[in-house]
Amino acid sequence: MSRSTDKLYKRPFTVCIEGNIGSGKTTFLSYFKKFDNVTVLEEPVELWRDVSGTNLLELMYKDPTRYAYLFQSYVQLTMLQLHTCMTPSPFKIMERSVYSAMCFVENLKRNNLLSNTEVSILEEWYNWSMKSAKIETDLIVYLKTTPEIVYERMKKRGRKEENTVSLEYLKQIHQLHDEWLYHQTLKPVPAPIITINGDRELHEMVEEFEKCKNQIFNRIVNDNDASNMMITTVPTNCIIPEIKAGMSD
């Protein structure tokens, strides 16, 4: 999202939308795009599809043994850039996060698609980011959706990179998200969690989004707090591009 403004929030109230492929994340983000006080940041899929002319996302799904480490390294970098970017709005809603990127790393590890050395490097990079990059998250919304349902949604939308994604893979990703956000046994959870039943029909989901909106907007963001706001000409590296939704949802 690109806005013409001279007001940037250094510390917007940040919400991460988490869930499986096809869980409804894009629908959630679309609902919040209509609010002027929200900056919506979708996964930077277009960057992953064009790394100096190479579709790294597609290569990762075709040959994960060769490309998983390279892809996950780039995912961590690009997600970190979104986490640390200032926004022209007091509320920032992100599709996934650097935290959930590690769920996919864990899945690759469990399936022996990353070597121990590759896992160690990715984990060290993640741990350093947690300590040094000042990543702050205020709320996580978990769209908890049955793997069979997300599989049918994925097949209906027919995205090219998803052609090789199996139901078994979706079950694995669902299990990891449940371990992390529902049972909270996988790794520390960085913020309070709202869990939404992603199996529901669209009109029912919108009702849940409305409830979620109230919980988000009831949070106080002080427009007069000089530590949270900077009045300046917007630097080029802080202008947030409009990135099309891709693999995630």
3D structure, described in words:
By secondary structure, this protein is α/β, with parallel strands linked by helices. It has two domains: 35-133, Rossmann fold (3-Layer(aba) Sandwich), CATH 3.40.50.300; 139-223, P-loop containing nucleotide triphosphate hydrolases (Rossmann fold, 3-Layer(aba) Sandwich), CATH 3.40.50.300. Helix content is 46%, strand content 13%. The chain is built from nine helices and seven strands; from the N terminus they run E-E-H-E-H-H-H-E-H-H-E-H-H-E-H-E. The protein has a five-stranded parallel beta sheet, with helices on both faces. Helix 3 packs antiparallel against helix 4 (64-84), helix 5 (98-110) packs across helix 8 (167-182) and helix 7 (147-157) crosses helix 8. The longest helix is centred in the N-terminal third of the chain and has 21 residues, at 64-84. The chain is globular. It starts with 6 loop residues before the first strand and ends in an 18-residue tail after the last strand.
Characteristic terms for this protein:
globular, two-stranded antiparallel ribbon, 46% helix, Rossmann fold
